[in-house]
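Repro:
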Amino acid sequence: MNTLDERLANRLHDIVDDEPGSVPPVGALLGRGRRARRRRTTTMVGATCALLALGVATAATVATTPAPGRPGVTAEASPPEPASPALQLVSAVTASENISYRMRLTNSGPQGLTYEGAFDPRTATGYVRVAQDDSVMTELLINGTRYEGAERPQGKLPADKVGPGETYGRYGQYPGRYDRLSLYGDGNGVLSAAAPDPAALFTALKSANATISERPDGTLHFGYTTSDKAGSTTTSGDVTLDGDGRIATVALTGTWQSTAKGRLDTGTFSSTLELFDYGVTVTVKRPADVVKVKK
């Protein structure tokens, strides 16, 4: 797809029936969308047939043929209803793809890390850095080629890290081609998908069977629960948009419980992904000290 409208239309086809090449049954969707809106105030990502109806429903003007001696009568249909929260998210995701940006991913907790970088998906070029006490772990992506290494931290090294160790400024070059950076949302599937690829946010939420709603201030809210034989995790989050309708922040919190260790363990977590400076020029210089990594 070459234009934003075409990409949005294709994504809407995916939502309706997961067949991009199909023709949406507009008439049936209109009726189903109206009934669905009466049944609930929030929108399930998986039940998105009504979204297309909301997106394509526009005000129409119908002119009747005047009878002899009578003036023509013009009737205007009701204005379209506001887009549903899920459709707003689809639009934001579509507007956020295929464009460069800067990012910051902050994970909470004592061991939480903060990633900072920039990326251009059109050229598969970017970088991300995460500061630790003994180094600044760095990933570079240049036209799809991945380099990983460590730079010296700005502060003084901890006493237990002084001595022979990692060679600062040396990078490993990995075989193959890559189309995104390696960012991790502390094991959270949705954030781990969206951090290196904002356009993947809606797909990840759909896969999690998330419920999407809109707060009074216009913020888009989502929630979902995942579980397995060892425990469960309940997550909720908020998505804010910038002035151009693109994703600006994804902030989520959650609680988890697990019996994997033979006892009941519980905990909480929170992470925030910030996206800004859309359209920024991203240039990355190949490091001088490179060692090829064999797999």
